[in-house]
Write a structure and sequence with these properties.
This protein is an alpha/beta fold and about 210 residues long. The protein has 3 helices and 23 strands. The chain folds into 2 domains: about 80 residues, Rossmann fold (3-Layer(aba) Sandwich); about 120 residues, Hexapeptide repeat proteins (UDP N-Acetylglucosamine Acyltransferase, domain 1, 3 Solenoid). Strand 1, helix 1 and strand 2 form a beta-alpha-beta unit.
């Protein structure tokens, strides 16, 4: 029998996670969100402890997207405290090297490639078509958008966000809660909390 999954967040990303969960053999038991967000909403985030005790729910995962980057980490901590098991969701059409390690609560969408020696932390989002080459280190709560390329030995620190189609050259480090804009080409390290964009990527507002 398939395991019944609670998804925290019923927006667009939450629905994408629901589709991914189905491909991974789960049944979506419902969502937490505001009333009316989806007919399958079972309550809000404050109802999580009670929902975790429900016999109709076997596991939980975060369904908040890139509009709530800081909130994703906070809610993951609450999910862990609830005692619900937290699965890893990796689509059957993603390609993961046998030496890749992926943390709890991370979601890996179709056509993703994870190269040899790469480590992925907890509660990480890796969207469709991202290519993450060998020996990358991706910390907890990172969000990687569709079509991103990490060109080997890249480090993404806690809570970093990489926009669609961005390319990060080998050996670069993207700091905690930094933002790399869509389509950027990153040729240098990005500091903690910094936002960069463009080709080559420069800090927002910089004339360099």
């Amino acid at each position: 029998m398939s395991r019944r999954l609670l998804i925290l967040g019923a927006g667009g990303h939450g629905r994408a996670v629901a589709d991914l969960a189905g491909a991974c053999g789960f049944t979506v038991a419902g969502f937490t969100d505001r009333p009316g967000a989806d007919p399958r909403v079972l309550g809000n985030d404050d109802d999580l402890p009670a929902l975790a005790r429900s016999a109709s729910i076997d596991a939980g995962v975060i369904g908040l997207g890139n509009s709530a980057l800081r909130r994703r980490g906070e809610l993951f901590d609450r999910l862990r405290e609830s005692g619900l098991p937290i699965p890893i969701l990796a689509h059957p059409r993603a390609t993961l090297s046998s030496s890749v390690r992926v943390g709890l609560g991370s979601v890996v969408f179709p056509a993703v490639v994870l190269g040899a020696g790469t480590t992925v932390g907890e509660n990480v989002v890796i969207y469709s078509g991202a290519i993450i080459e060998h020996d990358c280190r991706i910390a907890d709560h990172v969000y990687i958008s569709p079509g991103v390329v990490l060109s080997g030995a890249v480090v993404l620190e806690v809570g970093a966000f990489v926009g669609a189609g961005a390319v990060i050259l080998p050996g670069m480090t993207i700091g905690k809660h930094a933002i790399v804009g869509a389509g950027a080409v990153v040729l240098a390290d990005v500091r903690t909390g910094e936002t960069v964009a463009g080709v080559p990527a420069r800090p927002r507002g910089s004339s360099r």
